[in-house]
Design brief:
239 residues; alpha/beta; 9 helices; 7 strands
């Protein structure tokens, strides 16, 4: 099956041989891709809505993979047993919803060795949550597709209490490993955000009032952090 660059990158983070639970599976593209490419022998495709789950079942039947992929109607991890999945995928949801699913489903994570997460918004909140959890981010990726930037991460369960340095604000916003690796797509994203915030700041300079002043300070802080992170690429920032 041919899937989008975003979904292929998400699937590429899964450890080969793991049993996978795909939360919010929609059309079951990732489960089908994982089985057809022999990355997983068993996948549980889960969705909270009946419509997407029916579409998922149709696609699974068309690919003759009913024996390898189960489908379940589920709110988050509710329909998952604690010992079923070694890898859990949550892709395409907002950051707060991703955190809620993980927090509400903590009792279902018994066998889960890795989390593959691709939040669509408020990604800082997901990284902050993982920093305080028993999972540690060990890999990050970012792809640009159809004009949109998609960061994603793989977090693994820690056997012992870790003693790592606390994330900086920049690392929470943009990703510790993306920054360390000087990821080229992240650099494009940072330049894009710098230009966008520059335009916002220019517009705010014409406004008065307490809310405008507060918002201007927020944007100035954002610009300062972006410029600091861009300096790590060794190419400076755009004038």
């Amino acid at each position: 099956m041919q899937i989008s660059k975003r979904l292929e990158a998400v699937a590429g983070m899964v450890t080969s041989g793991y049993t996978v639970a795909d939360i919010g599976t929609d059309h079951a593209y990732i489960p089908i891709y994982l089985v057809e490419n022999k990355k997983s022998n068993r996948v549980i495709a889960m969705d909270i809505n009946k419509g997407p789950l029916l579409r998922a079942k149709d696609h699974i039947r068309q690919h003759q993979l009913c024996g390898c992929i189960d489908t379940r109607l589920s709110d988050g991890l509710d329909a998952l047993a604690p010992d079923e999945a070694e890898s859990i995928i949550i892709a395409g949801m907002g950051g707060p919803l991703t955190v809620r699913i993980l927090e509400n489903g903590r009792s279902k994570l018994g066998a889960c060795k890795e989390l593959i997460l691709q939040p669509q918004s408020e990604i800082r909140s997901v990284r902050a949550y993982l920093e305080q959890s028993e999972y540690r981010i060990v890999r990050e990726e970012m792809v640009l597709e159809d004009g949109k930037y998609y960061p994603m991460m793989r977090a693994v369960k820690e056997a012992e209490q870790r003693k790592e340095e606390t994330y900086t604000d920049g690392e929470l916003r943009y990703g510790r490993y993306l920054l360390r690796e000087k990821h080229p797509v992240l650099q494009q994203f940072l330049q894009h955000e710098l230009e966008l915030n520059g335009r916002i700041l220019s517009a705010l300079k014409e406004e008065t009032g307490e809310s405008a002043v507060s918002r201007r300070r927020e944007v100035e802080t954002e610009i300062r952090i972006i410029e600091q992170e861009l300096e790590k690429y060794g190419k400076g920032t755009k004038e």
